[in-house]
Amino acid sequence: MAKHKKKAPKQKAEDTAALLSQRLGESAQQVWLAGLGAFSRAQNEGGKLFDSLVKEGLVLEQNTRKLAGEQVEVMRETVEQNVGKARKRATDTWTRLEKVFEDRVHRALHRLEIPTRDDLSELQGRIDALQRELSGGKSTATRKAVSQKTAAKKAAAATGKPVRKRPAGAKTAPKTSGTK
Description:
Blueprint: H1 9-45, H2 47-111, H3 117-137, H4 140-159
Helix pairs in contact: 1-2, 3-4
């Protein structure tokens, strides 16, 4: 048995349009022939026949317009369905593209060991907890030293330069005033 292929919506619409065009052409030919026949009879039978032919022509015209209107509506619905499907596919493709981009950026940042927003928030919380713990039992000078170290670490992290550590027990040089 031969398998029948389903026609694509585009092909179906083209077939429908071709059929409609053929029918309209045939109808126009019939109208033309009816007109010629009517003209011949009108010459022979007079006005009475002419009036009846005009009525038949109106009926034929209405039927043709109705058929054409139905075919146009079918084609319009087909086009609207195809546009809707294309729009949905484009939206789905765009969403997938965004996801792939986000994943690749995330992997690149991870490979470069750049901390995420969550990592920085966690570290800030730990720093705050340590500062609260230290400020509970230490003197003002110790708290000031801790906050200076924290500020130095933050500045180093922002510039990417390592923090230089002093050996244990090393004192800083005394601050001098502007006079000698």
